[in-house]
Amino acid sequence: MSSQTLSAGPAAETENGQEAVVRLTDVRRHFGDTPAIDGVSLTVRKGEILGLIGRSGAGKSTLIRCLNGLERPDSGSIEIEGREITGLSEPELQPLRRRIGMIFQHFNLLSAKTVEENVALPLKIEGWSREKRLARAAELLELVGLTGKAKSYPAALSGGQKQRVGIARALAAGPALLLSDEATSALDPETTASILELLKDINARLGLTILLITHEMEVIRTIADRVAVIDAGLIVEEGPVWSVFADPQTATTQNLLAGVRPGLPQTVAARLVRGPGGTKAGETGAGETILGVDLSGPEAGTLLSGLSVELSGGFRLIHGGVDDIQGQPVARFFIGVPSADGAAAQAIAYLERRGAKVEVFGHVAGHA
Ligand SMILES: Nc1ncnc2c1ncn2[C@@H]1O[C@H](COP(=O)(O)OP(=O)(O)OP(=O)(O)O)[C@@H](O)[C@H]1O
Question: Whose CA is nearest to atom 11 of ligand 1?
């Protein structure tokens, strides 16, 4: 399939040299006292995968509904490919809505129609001939790896296959944006990985812009270029995925990351005593000071080996290591350093010299 057939259509607006497919500026939508969206500004740049993550009730669905014109914001501006949509009438909204292809958690396929008819449906609405529609559907089914399933009905497909049909259908009319609304939330981990791989592949091959709504950081980590974190109707943090993973700035982001970032093991945390330890008479040599260490960038890969050279008395790696996020080494680990003889202070000084962020959790008696 040529990228031409799935091109983004009219040129997106350019501002500061950056092309925006979607731009929200200070968008608000309150329901009575509930500020579902409370002043959101967000840009989806052409060709990127932007992940929008938030807990249940954070405002994701309201934001999607504002984007596709199903909900009108109380105030603020929403531009799609440079066109303001907030004041448009329903008939005026229709063609703009078709610039956004959507995939859903429960696929939303028509069970009485075959796979190819489902995929071709948006083209029927556009007035394409049956012959052209089916040719296009065949092309899209090949793109999503479902050649041979054209005549099947959705009931005969697995969840992953259904979502592939959903993706093909969403791409049929050559949208400017693919909006993925929890599209992998109903799938098992293996199928999730294959669907995310497909989306990443389509993004890379066709330059398709994707806005990915999820509550799972693992999904963001796997395919997004940038991430925006929404909480109580506000974007509380935004940035490249590796940088947000390496140094989350808000408690909301830290909580969302808890499952996918190394943390201090409970067994160690339960035995912690405040302070570095080994400072009182009789305590010397009796325990370990527990440090948490964060560093991202090229230096991260050699931090542990450097520390073992620096500390003649050695140290113990309790948990964590170096991860690769978007090609960036991101180190996060927890170590136990002998509390005696100033070793902890020496370790902290060395790690900070290398640019790492060091947190002293406390000390434990004996080995953690
Ligand atoms: N039509 C409505 N009337 C009243 N309150 C609403 C309405 N729609 C949403 N809300 C409220 O606005 C807030 C944001 O809801 P929203 O559905 O946008 O969150 P969400 O992030 O999509 O959550 P979830 O992941 O559970 O779908 C919630 O407090 C919700 O109860």
Answer: 36
